[in-house]
Amino acid sequence: MSRLVRASGALILTSALVVPFAPTASASAPMDTPDGGAAFTLTVLHGNDPESALLHASADPEFGGAARYATLINQLRDEEAAGTGAGDDESDSRGVVAVNSGDMYLPGPELSASLEDGAPFYDAIATSYAGYDAISMGNHEFDFGPELYAEFISAVTEDVPFVAANVDVSGEPELAALEAAGRIAPSTVVDVEDDVRVGIVGALYPALATISSPRNVVLDEVVGPVQAEVDRLAADGVDKIIMISHLQNITYEERVARELTGVDAVVSGGGHEVMANPEDALVPGDEVTVHPGTGAPLSYPLWVDDAEGAEVPIVTAGSDYKYVGRLVLNFDANGDLASVGDRSGPVRVSGTGDDAVEPHPEVEAQVTKPVADYVKELGNTEIAQSEVALDGGRDPGVRTQETNLGNLMADSLLDAGKRNAEDYGVAEPQIGIQNGGGIRNDSVIPAGPLSALDTYSIAPFANQVAVVPGIARSQVKELLERGVAATPAADGGFMQVAGVNFAYDPERTAQVVTEDGEVTTPGERVRHAILHDGTVLVEDGEVVDGDAITIATNDFSARGGDMYPFRDADFTVVGTTYQGALEHFVTETLSGRITAADYPEGGSGRIVIGEKATTPPGNGGGDDDDDGDGDDDNGDATPGPTDKPTDAPDDKKPGGSDGKDDGRDDKAGSLPVTGGALAGLIIAAVVATGAGGSALYLSRKRKPTTDAGGLDG
């Protein structure tokens, strides 16, 4: 029998998906240390969001990496069990648990190494050597569909359970079999000492279907199922309970923690927040994340009051194998949390300096070397030359405004839709739509060679190019409204477009849409939209009557991902992934040459702030300024492509993306200038071996991808 009913949505209110929750005034004050010390000390070693960063941290190869991480977490486990460095407030009676809050892998170059025929699942090997007592489900685990997740779980050491109290996997046979075998469960209990048991309850983001591809996996709201599991454990005599959750943003965990009772600590995942205290060493380039509600840096831990007024610490540990979190919990004789030890905080995964650790030899041999060799091969395959730097940054960038890389991606979808339309019996699309959350390199790729590896860093997911015919113009406007509904805040649903230019006013009413794509508040931001053939779709904020429009996008968006209001519109997948479309577009359609004229820095004016869209070139691109006076032919000043709100967003939203806030300054110049997240492994001289290598790579993949397509944005 199914463990859950379908989602009630109690925590999936529209506001919950848009605005982080501000903490209460008492949330930041830690509890006092008890007199007389603790009766029991439990150290929780924790990680989250490793996301296939198996080799090293993207910013610095001397930090991070699965091999160093395995060494450090095992070293810390031994030290904590022995009481090495224990404070005076800690007990001689002690125990250790190790947990991870999910997103164990992420589509991209490193994961692609595991998808080759006959290859082991490298992320599962790294996970097994970390020795976790429990792992929460994450959203990225479903990006390739439930089958690959089942394969990953099966490849991890058999004694590691995957926990989520609000998830029903009975509709997916492979996952259901793992649940029957005890590999998937609402919770688990760890015996840390002869008479001490620790309960670990899991939870996953309820709106999973809007950011990934869970298919027949059913999600419930969080508080009810988690509380039921906590109560069951308490009734069984378990008085120390940890929640490990992947709710996309630590402010979601805050809200949930306030509504629960009996949870002693929460380990958060999905938000990539960096929490630390002043004395904690960080990986170079990292900064402590600012709380979106209070504006204060996130100290370790973050305190909230639960439903009965008990103080609960919430912790997280960045992402990408860069930190092992160490939370020292002191319990009194009644089993109640009495204090958090001063030694608590993130421990960085370093390969240099006084805190350096040696890579775990087995992980180095079984994971690091084969994956590095594979990625290096991709990096050696040059597919194009770019005259201009390509901007794939997040904020400011593809989640806030038009960028030239966003245009390139949207153009590639439109190109693939047109090329393959006849073969698949669909109309040629007029518009291309790429959600900003699907562009993942989070960097500026410098002018020069573009490699096959770069295309996987840009477009790592399993998404297919899809053509959606017969979209009424009123619905096209709804889609455009959805693309700018979150501005000025960064959001994975921000839309990069091809074949259409539009202008919007961020001061006007933003669209509100349900998870199912039903528009409850029509947006009033999109003021003018014009196709590149000169057809006007929207004038003065009103839809202009006319023929329906055919759209090329990715199947994740076509299914309503990022809450795009396609509303179950029929679509046809046209035989290529969005990464494949990008590679074909730059190698074949653009003949291996990305020009500054076609893709200028700052964009070409496809999306502008104002009342009037930029005139399409030749009623097909650029402006119609024949006399060189800076005005277009109808006398309207052409808006600049870089026009954007002057106020920076002051929060991050959990909906539609992974909610990552990397703490960067809101300046384009602060972006890393790389050739992709793994550029440190690529040799300086890129050998031009032709575009065929990547096509061959796709043909060798272990699993088909037609049913996959999750982004998190």
TrEMBL record:
Keywords: Hydrolase, Membrane, Nucleotide-binding, Signal, Transmembrane, Transmembrane helix
Signal peptide segment: 1-27
Ranges of biased composition (kind: Acidic residues): 622-635
Transmembrane segments: 677-698
Domain 5'-Nucleotidase C-terminal: 383-565
SUPFAM superfamilies: 5'-nucleotidase (syn. UDP-sugar hydrolase), C-terminal domain (SSF55816), Metallo-dependent phosphatases (SSF56300)
Compositional bias ranges of the Basic and acidic residues kind: 644-668
Gene Ontology annotations for the cellular component aspect, listed alphabetically: outer membrane-bounded periplasmic space
Gene Ontology BP terms: nucleotide catabolic process
Homology family: Belongs to the 5'-nucleotidase family.
Protein name (record): 5'-nucleotidase
Organism listed in the record: Nocardiopsis metallicus
Lineage: Bacteria, Bacillati, Actinomycetota, Actinomycetes, Streptosporangiales
